């Protein structure tokens, strides 16, 4: 194995080193662009196939080279199909002046605007959850970060409303036509209510966990969103992040967690 790599290092030029550094930098920036979305797992899979293909070519393993080469040959088309939403969003943002504003996320030399540029209105959410917990009113609130959750927003009723304690309580009131499903908050706006979310199939969840909690875990498994669940049976508040559920969260703790996720500067100033 080391003997096979010796010719590679002997023939390595300065331009080859620069080429490798530039490719690594672009892959890192691409990773930052899709981090927190469902596309990241697909991207890592594509990179793994490409690296495996290069390795078997160096080792002259002809059969594996042919098999993996078949995947690589259609890789460009596959990238366009798989990453169509991300590519479309990037090109749209690149053609608008919004990408040069300060405090936006970067891609290579550009800064791109994403969800949650505006600080989240935390107090109305916490107060509404506290009241719904006391009255045992079931609720499921999803707050998006980088991933804008458009595919799930489109399954519900579009609101695009300002966050308020009264509105949240009215939406989840038991006789409200929108109380079933999830409320989705993006960029400090209630984008939609009564949304349908993917249900987690994780075997780590307790058997008694209901559909509302499984949906909260499901959406956080497939995106970078945060979910808050108020149990209709117990009145307890649950915090869900990255597919992990923390039940029995007090309102004061909920406020701290939201500040850490969405308004870190406000949380540090308060301390």
UniProtKB/TrEMBL annotation:
<dbReference type="InterPro" id="IPR034701">
    <property type="entry name" value="CdaA"/>
</dbReference>
<keyword id="KW-0548">Nucleotidyltransferase</keyword>
<feature type="domain" description="DAC">
    <location>
        <begin position="84"/>
        <end position="251"/>
    </location>
</feature>
<dbReference type="GO" id="GO:0004016">
    <property type="term" value="F:adenylate cyclase activity"/>
</dbReference>
<keyword id="KW-1133">Transmembrane helix</keyword>
<dbReference type="InterPro" id="IPR014046">
    <property type="entry name" value="C-di-AMP_synthase"/>
</dbReference>
<dbReference type="InterPro" id="IPR003390">
    <property type="entry name" value="DNA_integrity_scan_DisA_N"/>
</dbReference>
<dbReference type="GO" id="GO:0106408">
    <property type="term" value="F:diadenylate cyclase activity"/>
</dbReference>
<dbReference type="InterPro" id="IPR045585">
    <property type="entry name" value="CdaA_N"/>
</dbReference>
<dbReference type="InterPro" id="IPR036888">
    <property type="entry name" value="DNA_integrity_DisA_N_sf"/>
</dbReference>
<dbReference type="GO" id="GO:0005524">
    <property type="term" value="F:ATP binding"/>
</dbReference>
<feature type="transmembrane region" description="Helical">
    <location>
        <begin position="37"/>
        <end position="56"/>
    </location>
</feature>
<keyword id="KW-0808">Transferase</keyword>
<feature type="transmembrane region" description="Helical">
    <location>
        <begin position="12"/>
        <end position="31"/>
    </location>
</feature>
<dbReference type="Pfam" id="PF19293">
    <property type="entry name" value="CdaA_N"/>
</dbReference>
<dbReference type="Pfam" id="PF02457">
    <property type="entry name" value="DAC"/>
</dbReference>
<keyword id="KW-0472">Membrane</keyword>
<comment type="subunit">
    <text>Probably a homodimer.</text>
</comment>
<keyword id="KW-0547">Nucleotide-binding</keyword>
<comment type="function">
    <text>Catalyzes the condensation of 2 ATP molecules into cyclic di-AMP (c-di-AMP), a second messenger used to regulate differing processes in different bacteria.</text>
</comment>
<feature type="transmembrane region" description="Helical">
    <location>
        <begin position="63"/>
        <end position="83"/>
    </location>
</feature>
<keyword id="KW-0812">Transmembrane</keyword>
<comment type="similarity">
    <text>Belongs to the adenylate cyclase family. DacA/CdaA subfamily.</text>
</comment>
<dbReference type="InterPro" id="IPR050338">
    <property type="entry name" value="DisA"/>
</dbReference>
<keyword id="KW-0067">ATP-binding</keyword>
<protein>
    <recommendedName>
        <fullName>Diadenylate cyclase</fullName>
        <ecNumber>2.7.7.85</ecNumber>
    </recommendedName>
</protein>
<dbReference type="GO" id="GO:0006171">
    <property type="term" value="P:cAMP biosynthetic process"/>
</dbReference>
<keyword id="KW-1003">Cell membrane</keyword>
């Amino acid at each position: 194995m080391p003997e096979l790599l010796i010719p590679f290092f002997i023939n390595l030029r300065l331009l080859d080193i620069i080429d490798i550094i530039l490719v690594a930098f672009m892959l890192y920036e691409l990773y930052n662009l899709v981090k927190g979305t469902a596309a990241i797992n697909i991207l890592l899979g594509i990179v793994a196939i490409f690296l495996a293909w290069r390795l078997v070519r160096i080792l002259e393993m002809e059969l594996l080279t042919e098999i993996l080469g078949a995947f690589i040959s259609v890789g460009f088309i596959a990238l366009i199909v798989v990453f169509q939403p991300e590519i479309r969003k990037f090109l749209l943002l690149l053609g608008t002046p919004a990408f040069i504003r300060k405090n936006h996320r970067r891609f290579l030399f550009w800064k791109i605007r994403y969800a949650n540029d505006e600080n989240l209105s935390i107090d109305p959410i916490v107060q509404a959850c506290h009241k719904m917990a006391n009255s045992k009113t079931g609720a499921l609130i999803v707050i998006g970060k980088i991933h804008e959750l458009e595919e799930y927003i489109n399954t519900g009723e579009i609101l695009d409303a300002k966050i308020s304690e009264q509105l949240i309580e009215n939406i989840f009131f038991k006789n409200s036509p929108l109380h079933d499903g999830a409320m989705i908050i993006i960029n400090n706006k209630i984008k939609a209510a009564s949304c349908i979310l993917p249900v987690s199939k994780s075997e780590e969840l307790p058997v008694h966990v209901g559909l509302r909690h499984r949906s909260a875990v499901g959406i956080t498994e497939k995106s970078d969103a945060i979910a808050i669940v108020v149990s209709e049976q117990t009145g307890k508040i649950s915090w869900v992040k990255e597919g992990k559920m923390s039940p029995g969260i007090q309102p004061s703790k909920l406020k701290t967690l939201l500040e850490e996720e969405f308004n870190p500067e406000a949380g540090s100033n308060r301390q």
